[in-house]
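Bug #77: duplicate submission created two jobs. Keeping one. Sequence:
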Amino acid sequence: MSSVRINIVANMLGSGWAAFLSLAFVPLYIHFLGLESYGLIGFYVTLQVLFSVLDMGLTTTLSREMARLSAAGNAAAQDMRNVVRTLEVVYWVLAVFIITAVVLTADWIATSWLNSNRLPPDVLGSSITLMGVVIAFRMPYGFYAGGLIGLQRQVLLNGMKSAIETFRNGGGVIVIWLVSPTITAFFTWHAIAGVIAAILSRMVLWRSLPRANGRASFTPSLFRQLWSFGAGMSAISLLALLLVELDKIILSKMLPLDELGYYMLASTVAMGINLIIVPLVLAIQPRLTQLVAGGDVTGLRQIYHMGCQLMTVLVMPFALGLCFFSEPLLRIWTQNADIARFSAPVLSLLALGTAMNAMMNIPYALQLAHGWTRLALITTSISVLVLVPALIVMIDKFGVIGAASIWVVLNAGNVLLTLPIVHAKFLRGEYKHWLLVDFLRPTCVVLAVLGLGRFFMPEETSMTGEAVWIALWVTASLFVGAKVTPVTRSYISRKTAG
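Kept job's structure:
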């Protein structure tokens, strides 16, 4: 099995385990803490994503440099160690800044931004302060993981990540179940887990680097050299994060925390699709970078189309399954018919928008492999300018449904407008192949299969019966989609012939 495929499998298993833990425990969080406290957890997730813009593209830069330098083997060992040391010093300065910024603004956020009916201001303030600690240590954890991705040590990374997420999520549930069913206890535990994760990931990355004769050193000139790419990535990251999180930011101001809780519940499920997207991108991105560096256009074209086809085949059955079966899935998961009924339309829209967003990821990885960030910067800038007034108007008129509908329109527009430009610049003549073979062919058959499954779904059945029905039709759509797509069809043929 090739290294790319091994990394894809490892990433899928690691991300799948993390997804299982987070999704399985959400009903327990709501049970022990209440929906309003879960809405506060949703605000924490949004705050974490917003602060990640301070990454300034450093994680992506580290991953790209590790992939590029690793092609030279041990000859680049000293350079690799200097890159890690230089960027990690900057990163830990950012971590200190995050803690300081959150502590100084915690009371203002608690009293002037959030709309809570049950949680007192002092509890909100303490929780927000703890959020700052959690975020400050989770970011270095992600940074060091980025280095392991660039080194293509993704089997090791996912083993570590699985252990950390089990400790973080499992311990969090035990704390609010047996120690203290409060939101401050929840965030205290996550702060402890964050410190441990940052220390462990740092140790694993440094031990994974090739040995060099000299000591790793902070090199200001190296940082200036890498800053051009990192600055472009930083701007794109800021705008992209705004696109993803603006709905939640504006909702947290315009609507009560319990309604934000309903929206975050649907968003948590829809964003679970990222657990398919991210492993694929993380496995393919370093390989694309190496092929571009080596000038292998034929290999680049093959890996690119393989990635795009795998993305469609794996994402569309689950995303469209969430669209068609949103209410029964939420009812099965939460065991609460009222929550399922309120959140189902939001989930359908968010899942559809996330599926469209998934189609942009491999083309975006192609742009990064060439070090080209201009198109992403332009498109995300325009999108943010349009998004803010659109969200305010739609949330005011339609509430959470309005926010979710904007997500669909935004991502559909990006797919239609930007992908022809990407292909024209880097893979001239390949857009038609992407549109017809990589995307439309598997998507249409998956849509047809799941549409039939929803149309013939029995109205009177148990939750177990619903779960089996949905699982069978999603599996069938996955198999049919794989059979009509060249990369997966050839793989199935080889396995069945063997």
